[in-house]
């Protein structure tokens, strides 16, 4: 999608930074893969500031509402940044729903293999989506993620 104005360098940087949030949310699914492949622990470095913010009580809802109200709904901010921020928030919502599925799997009992496979699948999916979105943002291109991009376009006017 390139029908909006050209993204400046700062728009590209801020658009890419928004995707650190879903990366932070998805890290909890990567525990077993990080044990097998320690190089994946390097992904923890860029999300350390987010982890510090989230150590504050109710930080999750404050960050979500702040980004939604102060960035996505602010027409003075470029469409590119608002689009990427909204898409990152929607990715976070999908990850939250997957966390609920994980809780249900854990409550069902001894499905250790199933929960590990599910966790690995979700982690790889989140990692692939975040890397794709960050690369596209840095290039100044709107990242088209199936279904999520459609919902993003309907929310960002």
Automatic annotation (TrEMBL):
UniProt similarity note: Belongs to the Tic20 family.
PANTHER family registered for this protein in UniProt: PROTEIN TIC 20-II, CHLOROPLASTIC (PTHR33510:SF5)
Organism domain of life: Bacteria
GO cellular component, one term: membrane
Subcellular location: Membrane
Membrane protein topology class: Multi-pass membrane protein
Protein name: Tic20 family protein
Alphabetical keyword list: Membrane, Transmembrane, Transmembrane helix
TM ranges: 12-31, 43-71, 83-105, 117-135
Source organism: Pseudocalidococcus azoricus BACA0444
